[in-house]
Amino acid sequence: MADMVSQSCELCTGPGGRVLWQSACCRVVRVDDADYPGFCRVIWNAHVREMTDLDAVDRDTLMRVVFAVEAAVRQLFAPDKINLASFGNMVPHLHWHVIPRWADDRHFPEPIWGRVQREDRPPRPVVDDAALIRALAHLE
Question: Which residues does 116 contact at the CB level (< 8 Å), separation at least 6?
Answer without folding.
Answer: 106, 107
